[in-house]
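note to self — DONT lose this again. spent like an hour looking for the file last time. sequence + predicted structure for the chain T wanted, 132 res
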Amino acid sequence: MEANNVTTLVKAVSEAGLVDTLSGLGADGKGFTVFAPTNDAFGKIPEETLGAVLADKEKLTAILTYHVVAGAWKSTDLAEGDQMVKTVNGKEIKITKKDGMVWINDSAKVEIADVISSNGVTHVIDTVLMPE
């Protein structure tokens, strides 16, 4: 994964004060799975809306933690079909694996899967996930 492709996400995580939290191993000690939107994914959001979200720490935190699941889930760990998974913010996302492709909530495609880090796995996605 090229870090310059997710600079908006890195900035947002810093703005929300989540760097230390997401750098750890989580409550269960098994790390995290992060669905990381690209800069292009953030670019799909109108600039005014994105600016407002970045300025609202509570809303920003809710959105960012909606992209994080407890435990390290590689794409090979996923069964074919749909699964509902609880995110760190408490809401569920639908993960669909079909024909080797992985989708989140039927809208975000995993572009780069299984980027392994010291505390989990990152999957780069093409769309920002928005909790209901």
